[in-house]
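G., the chain you wanted modeled:
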Amino acid sequence: MAKAPAPEKRPGFFSQISSLFRFTREEYPWLPWAQIAVLLFGIGIGLVIGYLIQPVTWWGVTLWGITGLMLGILAALFLMTRLSTKAMYKKIDGMPGATGHVLTTSLGRHWQAPDMPVGVNPKTQDAVFRAVGRGGIVIVGEGARGRLTRLINDEKTKAQRVAQGVPVNVFYVGHGDDEVEIAQLSKTIKKLPKAINKPTMAAVIKRLESVSQSLSSLPIPKGIDPLKARAQRPR
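Predicted structure as tokens:
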């Protein structure tokens, strides 16, 4: 009898931290020095508090120094996480499929988006992505704005036809006027006011999925995802 394949081993906590550190340091070579500075600052703050609290005892100063060390470690991890997110956006900016990567990993549980674009021009790689959430329907164009007009209008018409009354918001990813930078895309979408409840959101997703064709010609960028490798808080 053939043995069942062994389950895929997920990287451990320290392995994730190491990968995240290497990824971030590629974009910010000064990261180690910044983390050391934050760590020393935390220890220094702890020692100062230990000396200010009367009566001064060696064990009191030591405990406050250790507390400062722990806070410094947390601050250093927080700094690395924030910088890793910025590094990720810099790395994927301008890459085909970057919009889909952001929509599927950065919007949180109140939004859902398919992995693949809902409209694509295989010759130019201009693509249209869609997300559905409490703010309604969001359609995002990735590529040359002039070439995206037909794809955007087709998807907008489809959304308005199957989800009447649900607001449809259109964004274009880019660095020009009236465009949203990839690093600001998830924040921009999350700021949309709530327009539908959860049951309506689920119904809209089903209706849109029923009329959408699966597209697999445009791959989503792979690689390290700082949002998934976020350091956990020590217990």
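The longest strand covers residues 127-133.

Shout if anything looks off.
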